[in-house]
Amino acid sequence: MNNTSETEFVAPKKSTIINSGKGEWLTQMVPCLITQKLITAIYILPFDAEKTILVPNEEIEKNFIKLERDDTYVYTENYPNKKIEIAEFLIKKVNLKKLKKHFEDNQIMTTLIEKIETDSYKSKGNNSVCKILEYKNFIEGTVVDNSKLKRVGDPIYNRRARHSVPISKDYSREDYENCCSFPAPIGIREEDFALPSEQNKICIELLEQVFNSVNAPDCPKEIADELGLKINKNTHTCKWCGELFNIESINQNYCEKEHTLNLCHRDPIAGTKANNIYFGHCSCNREQGGYSELERLMQICRLSKNKEEYKNIIKKELFLDI
Length: 322
Ligand SMILES: [Zn+2]
Description:
Helix content is 32%, strand content 16%. It contains 11 helices and 13 strands. The longest helix has 16 residues.
């Protein structure tokens, strides 16, 4: 589909299960592009899905709302800035097939490319998310244990696309239990959210960081050009310790030893954006903890304020002549 100037958008009022076989969630208020209208049903493409689904007209009338659009945007209360650029619906993921094929005999590169793919395109998810079977039992009233039922469900998807509906940190468990979709999942953490265009930027950024690490293999020029990778060998550093990142320090069991690799956030609140994440050391990521770099800096400032000794150390370290 190349022309979206005439297309319409709808969104489901509540989360439901689609695809009767294995079952899959259709999230509450996820914008869906209408791709084809039949006589009694229409095909829709949910923003966070890869395939279209067929929905009967009466279901659309009863359980969906129509979303406003203009030439550039579709308007939706549930996404950042209350709108999504329509072009985002047509963006394809970066194609990593050739890269995977080229490095198929290189265990570390294979693991890294898979990690990059997951980090770029999937949200972290949550183990307590409501499973499809649990949801069916809940709806059919076959769950007997009330205490268990109370805990069923979490508003966060399990390993779902990063452009699923972002749920604000302020959204409480009570809000969730009162929402019409409960206990079905209704989205992903807002810090996990990224639009498809941003996800592709993350993917490219992380690939560049890998090829810019010490001891990284060469990326074939043809693949680098096709993906638009800017490679400057031996320039990628862990931002926390400032050391050049060495690809040979990575072992297969992430985080079991010092100096393995981790996806680090310079500011955890700013979330998953290409300019906020980097591959760094696990030990460094642990040291930073859940704080942003700026928060850590302000802690040092506070400690130093009334202690000349600390101030002198900082001046010396930074070669400050004051
Ligand atoms: Zn480090």
